[in-house]
Amino acid sequence: MTKISDGSSASKRSEIAGIPTRYIGIGVIVVLAVWFLFANLDKVKIQFWVFTVTAPLWIALLATLVAGGALGWLLKGRRGK
What crossing angle do the helices spanning 57-75 and 21-38 adopt, rounded to 10°? Predict the structure, then answer.
């Protein structure tokens, strides 16, 4: 006899308490990022090629986080190619 799998075991592994593990991972990363941002509230000088800007460190970190997220979102379609 051949055992036929209905695929239900695969979907149970990718969920915790009915929430997809992808969303849980994203939530954990967001919480850690916000915690890191609020732990770094000092002002810093950011030097570009031509000019220098003084801004709170959390703004620089947030801009970097958003730029990285945007880059990841733009490149996610190239993953399968």
Answer: 160
Q: How far is CA 17 from CA 12, 22, 28, 42, in A?
A: 9, 13, 16, 39
* Token pair for 44: 């810093």
pTM exceeds 0.70 = no
Q: How far is CA 33 from CA 11, 36, 41, in A?
A: 29, 5, 13
Q: What is the pLDDT of residues 41-70, one digit of tens each?
A: 899 998 988 999 999 988 888 888 899 989
Work out the burial of residue 19: count CB atoms within 10 Å of its CB; fewer than 13 is exposed, 13-18 middle, 19 or more buried: exposed
Q: Which residue has the tokens 């954990």?
A: 28
Tokens of 2: 């051949």
